[in-house]
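Re: Re: token formats

Sure, here are both.
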Amino acid sequence: MTNALKNRWVKIAGQVVVMTALVLGLVAFVGNNKSVTLTVDGQASTVSTFGSTVADVLAESEVEVGERDDVTPAVGEEISNGAKIEVVTAKPVNVNVDGDSSTVHTTAATVQELLDELEVTDKSALSAPLTAELASVGGVTISTPKNVTIAADGKTRKEVSTATTIGDLLKEHDIKVRKDDKLSVAAKEPVEEGTKVKVTRIDREQVEETESIAFGTDETTNSSMFNDEEKVTRAGEAGERVKVYEIVLTDGKETSRKLVREKVTREPVSQKITIGTKKRPAKVNNANVGGAWQALAECESGGNWSINTGNGYSGGLQFSASSWLGAGGGKYAPYAYMATPSEQIATAEVLRGNGGWGHWPACASKLGLL
């Protein structure tokens, strides 16, 4: 009886130990189990976990994170019951910055957040609003502000622009480029920091110019006029021609011209002149033996101032005896041929003073002295 009672208490004691262990285990189980809210890209779920860190919860939930993903709290942080874990995965976004395209993996939700992440000023020109959701726009084109210099229409100005191309830059500042104008940088070229562009204006216009047409000369001859004489019988008149040129102006200055047409509006009238052909005798100095008297002596006596042919005339100028004495030649010599040339000329001057060259009519006329 005693042994039976003893065995019963032993059995009961064992059962108590087992129950105690079960209770303690249950308490430990309940104490270590946690309820955590896990949000992945905006999708929230409640997770029961025995893990102690964020990494444990992610592993149990089979959520893989990359180095560009955002995890809050950090992966290595410990967690407690009721903790909240948020995972934002980095997504690829096509980004074009000043013509350079690339794919950026980002956790940014809006265009503004993307600019902040890229450290790009929000004063840039954007293909989407700052508040736009990246998930809805797909890609973003960004043109950052750049310092540029524009020279056009006689003015040079410095500007800050977010234009993408040279063409866009000129449109931005209301500078129109016409068909013939020239650009120092092609319109399709990108705008870069420090870009300088010059617009050269090319204008074409037609101008009329009137010019004179010189008149010609028609000549006729007249044998009764001396060869050093001429007479205008009809005055000449200049004509007129109108020429039309196409000129090219570069920034307002003429750089080339081309004749496109011309028309004679008034024909010129030729001048008519009559020219003499008669040879005029050489004019000589009367006071010089080698002048008119010498020429007259050549005609009268062959230039022989001492000639005496016995025909009643002697000397170079063929004085008659009466003419010689009458003009005072006797004071030099009885006859002219006996006097010197200068004495004969001095006596001839006396005769010419009384009757001119008519004392020697034939030769004087031949020599043009009459």
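Second one below.
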Amino acid sequence: MSPVIYMVLALGVVLASIVSAIFGLAGGTLIFAMLSWGLDAKQAIPLHSAIQVVGNLARFTAFWRFIKWRVVGLFSILLLPGAWLGGLLFNYFNPILLEFLVGAFILISIFIPEGKLPPTRPWMFVVLGFLSSFLGMIVAVTGPFIASFFVLNNIAKEELIATKSVCQALTQIVKTGVFLISVGFDFGQYQCLLLILCVATILGTFIGKWLMEKISQHRFNQLNRILLAIIALGMWLDALRHWLN
């Protein structure tokens, strides 16, 4: 890659990480879109996982006081089996269909009025962890899927960003390990690109945290649902584009 492409990607990751730190989502989707611009999906998905590990750990550092550790514990129980199974079936599942279904779940979740559902039972967070790691091996971007589940539970903005960041960090760590050990992906081949983009995601995270603190909870909920709807529709359009091709 040329230095210009490196600069464009780094700037894009800074902006994407700002969005992630403000809303707890969308950044991963944007980063994956940028990586896919210059790389094949078989390369973009593992690299996206590695960058997201750093980005989520940065948000963990910035928001650690608001983490709901019980949710994290439940979420992490089946992460490894989910990623392992997803790695085994990496070449057998149709990512287009899965992307469409994830988008459908997100759209359904945001149109359910707040407070209309009973509290989430603990086992559902266990299932969420399994599905996020399994789907993440195949469709790469599962942040909006996790965020939509949290939206259904009316979690406060700081708690949503903090808890989701830890859950996603665990997911991405497991995924990266599976790509390294089971799939045999060579991360060392991209070490320079990874270093630049990891520094960019840390910078964007702390800028985003500063901006997020200036947004009210009500405005956050409104913008979060709008953003989720845009992402879900984008996933549908992307799935349709690949299906037509």
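The chain has one domain: 3-244. The chain is about 80% helix and 0% strand.
- S.
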